[in-house]
TrEMBL record, chain A:
Claim: Transmembrane helix is one of the keywords in the record: yes
Signal sequence coordinates: none
Protein name stated in the entry: ABC transporter permease subunit
Keywords carried by this UniProt record: Membrane, Transmembrane, Transmembrane helix
Higher taxonomy: Bacteria, Bacillati, Actinomycetota, Actinomycetes, Pseudonocardiales
Ranges annotated as spanning the membrane: 21-39, 59-81, 102-123, 143-167, 174-193, 249-272
Organism in which the protein naturally occurs: Allokutzneria multivorans
Record flagged with keyword ATP-binding: no
TrEMBL record, chain B:
Descriptive protein name: ABC transporter ATP-binding protein
InterPro entries: AAA+_ATPase, ABC_transporter-like_ATP-bd, ABC_transporter-like_CS, P-loop_NTPase
This protein's record includes keyword Kinase: no
The keyword Nucleotide-binding is annotated on this UniProt entry: yes
Source organism of this protein record: Allokutzneria multivorans
Positions of the ABC transporter domain: 12-237
Family: Belongs to the ABC transporter superfamily.
Amino acid sequence: MNGLVKAEFRKIFSTNMWWGLLIPGALITLGFAAGGAWIGSLGAQVRDIDEQVPLALPLFASGMTFGTLFSALVGVIGVTGEYRHRTITTTYLTAGSRDSVLVAKLVAYAGLGAIYGVASALFGSLGAILGSGGEGFPSAVSWLAICAVGVVSSVLWAVFGVGLGALVGNQLGAVLGLLLYTQVVEGVLAGILRSNGAEEVPPFLPYTAGNDMTMDLALNLFFGDLPERLTNSPLVAPLRQGLTEAAPIWWASALIFLGYAVLMVVAGSVAGKQRDIT
Amino acid sequence: MEGRVHDGTGRIVVQDLTKRFGPVTAVQNLSFTVEPGSVTGFLGPNGAGKTTTLRMLLGLVRPSSGGTTINGLPFDRLGNPATVVGAVLEAQSFHPTRSARAHLRCYAAAAGLPDERVEQVLTLVGLTTAANRRAGEFSLGMRQRLALGTALLGDPQVLVLDEPSNGLDPEGIAWLRTFMRSFARGGRTVLVSSHLLAEVEQTVDQVVIISGGQTRYQGPLEDLRRSQRSRVLVQPADAHALVAALAEAGLTDVETLEDGRLGVTGSHTKQVADIALAAGVAIYGMQEEQADLERMFLQLTSGEPGQGQAGGFGGGAA
């Protein structure tokens, strides 16, 4: 088993893909942490009240959630690349079983997901510093908590990606499926659910759950760190309620997403064992 | 490890193997055995089911029914398969931007082999100077060498090659023939597929000929060659008299061809000429048909299902 894991790491680091996805992932994390896309509205409202709110934390967290998409992509592309380049034949000929190959890939890509997570934390921190001008930072403990959860989320997304890749096999199909689902389908689905009175369902969807594990913690820390005069403000209180109470607590979201990742891996294992390599 | 308890014989057994892809039956009740210490040719026209059979043997394709063993075990129970069987298959490839050395190091790690083995294999297949080049830049011949090097990493007892001559230059083909022979001479097993008998005729001792997903012939190539007896085509002045004279000499397998000539099986020109002279029958023309393996191969592989086996070629059908 150790040999198979070593083989997977050698495969990863002997082509350009690992840094070819790491760099854009890190830069996008930096960009979102600096620009703070959706957090803009929150920022505008909070800034109306006080200039000194520690907005850097939610900015940083939102950047990291965008970065995790690249961890999923590297898992998907890494696994399906074996089918695309027809190396899967040799891989299966040098392994005791197909499941042992899948487990080795899970270990290796979880490790790569951790590397992506750390890079995302570093570049996200840099982006938050640039975006907020070095002001409005919370305690180091809060910051490190977001880093840690972000790295865990990155690992889980890589595992999810490996499972998805093993399930689909076809590289283009798996990549398009991942991007379309996370960036379009789930948003539309959530909208439909909300407008039909099922607003409690969207937090249980995979992409939302995967993001919420980091975002919900960041928002709770953010609102918790606000001075008392602000938390009691008629502007902040409903905002807090709307943003944090719609989603389950961060670790519950993490467990929900872990469930999806495990489900994907099991499906990938079943599909992988059925597949004829011709 | 449970998987290590194979019997170590190097024998390949294919038993009642059937594979259906949807409505298409690629392989039907195929059975044959490949013994160690010889090079066995696995022959049949394109689409006969050779590749599918080899992929089932190697655990890459799941049989619809039947099974295969190597060393007495199915592939998925071999434990560390790279040390038992190495394979060069069509549609097996390399990552285009990974170097040959890096490729081999990946699979050496997977099989639990030391990195020195990679250097040994690179030397063995003559790729040492190209080792750091990307596999995507390789010629077809170099790719075949790299594929063979990958197959040999685990120093396997059994070597399976699917149409290995494709893309090789004459020099590469000659090298591969020598390699296969010496590999088998050491008591190991080589199973090599081809759609051309002539391509492997000089290399193989045994042949398994399949067509339409079924076995047509299995046995020593020599028996197949011997079963094809030569035939003399003769144009006599008096066919009747010659047939009688031939019968007197014990040659009864005589047929009249469409063009009026006689086909005398199991004889040679000198004997027929002597008989004709003794009987006083003038001969206007005579020629001897050579035992043509390729023609025989074509007959075996183009016949209706079942015909080849019913034909019974000597002791070869064992």
